[in-house]
Amino acid sequence: MKxxxxxxxxxxxxxxxxxxxxxxxxxxxxxxGDGAAAEEELTLGFIVGSREHVFYNLIEEGIMxxxxxxxxxxxxxxxxxxxxxxxxxxxNLVAQGVDAIALSCNDPGGTTPxxxxxxxxxxxxxxxxxxxxxxxxxxxxxxxxxxxxxxLGGQETERLAEAGQTVGIINFDEPQSCIDRRTGWExxxxxxDKQFNIIDIGNYEGDAAKAEQLMSDALSKNNNDISVxxxxxxxxxxxxxxxIKAAGASTKVIGFDGNPEAKAAILDAENGKxxxxxxxxxxxxxGKQISQNMVDYLKNGSVAEAKIMIAPYIITAENAAE
Length: 322
Hints:
12 strands, alpha/beta
């Protein structure tokens, strides 16, 4: 009898302890008012080109604003304009189990394998600013119409330079966005009736200091006789401005991005003598649009458009303060 009572008491104690430590079964619906979300929060991974560039910081700002409006968790990483770093970020985001990944694909050849690997794992891939044309895994791309932006830069070059003068471009050979800008610019200046002497000042590789050195060398080789330089990114324009001032040249600068420092330079009494035009993008809108399309795809299984191009526009002293 004693043995039976001992077993009974032990069993009762085990059941009691189990009940104290248990939670609701997973299949049981949450009680109304207990704070549980109606649906699980999405976690989206983003890889910007480089946080050293204001443009990408503004895209990140647009992403973070969208995360608050749309109710998702954003993980934003810096790709450092390096395909190995970007690929590692993609792989790590896959390992973390994010719901989708968006990246600025600055080096398609280097990052496409990681993008395709993510797609095979069932994680949809999106791109912004720069994309990859060598794969079909990208669900949606959001960026500036860079060819049109280059054309606008060419139109400004035509406006600022006289017939027969030397005009140049500081380019960036790797990102497709900058290749497109060069394409649009060359389309206009090569077809111009002004018959410019067109020079390639060089690949600044996203580094303002390198752009300054390239511009300094070009001015030296051409006896400071360069009428206009088109820079495919604002860091290049910043470097060019420094070289022009140091050389005592009068070259006019056309930048591309529309960053705050570009507007400040155009409006400045001294710097505005040189940096006179800017082709502006809308980075915050890029961040917002790519976020919205990722959420739409995850909720609906599709996006309204596979490619969303945001039109650029020209900034001069007349509208820089607006």
